[in-house]
Amino acid sequence: DESNFEFAYYLQRVCSMIAGNWTAPSGVPGGMRVEVYFRIGRDGSLTSPRVETSSGNTYFDQSAVRAVLVTGHLPPLPMGWNGSDLGVHFGFEYTGP
Prior knowledge:
Elements: H1 8-19, E1 32-41, E2 46-53, H2 58-71, E3 85-94
């Protein structure tokens, strides 16, 4: 949510951790994309993951939300970040086999 979040290393770690917990469901066609929104608490807790922009495929959308839920906890937000939490718009894209 914050355009001034300047800690690229932290976002790369978030991407890596969540992406490592995601696999597209079998049988879905390439070219699918879903965007999931969630919040990261100061302590790294993940809250309120929800589909923000659906792919149109329920199984695909659920797999993305599940990846966030399975990740469960991230490293604490950087000490230099003054906010109490951070909103994240996370895109999951499947280009095909």
